[in-house]
Amino acid sequence: MPTSEKAHHSLDYLEYNERFEFLNVFSMEIELENSLRKGLPYPILKVIEYLSVDRAGFIWGRQYRLAGHYTIYLLWYD
């Protein structure tokens, strides 16, 4: 927590509150393109890219989506 006014102003650029809807593969690609156009910071873009890439054996995004679908199914079933 910044203690001085100067320290508070130097941290203003760190406040990001972004929401992304990853409903399917196509929406993930669209969200990535929109984020690139908006000029979001590199760490946020890396997370979106990591979850949306699904080629050359790199299927983490697909596995996360499948885990989410199964979790929702099990929560509703139980």
Automatic annotation (TrEMBL):
One family name in Pfam for this protein: DuoxA
Superkingdom field: Eukaryota
InterPro entries for the chain: Dual_oxidase_maturation_fac
Subcellular location: Membrane
Keyword line: Glycoprotein, Membrane, Transmembrane, Transmembrane helix
Membrane protein topology class: Multi-pass membrane protein
Any one of the GO CC terms: endoplasmic reticulum membrane
One GO-annotated biological process of the protein: protein transport
UniProt KW Zinc-finger keyword: no
Transmembrane regions listed in the UniProt entry: none
Family: Belongs to the DUOXA family.
PANTHER family to which the protein is assigned, alphabetical: DOXA1 FACTOR-RELATED (PTHR31158:SF1), DUAL OXIDASE 2 (PTHR31158)
This protein's name: Transposase
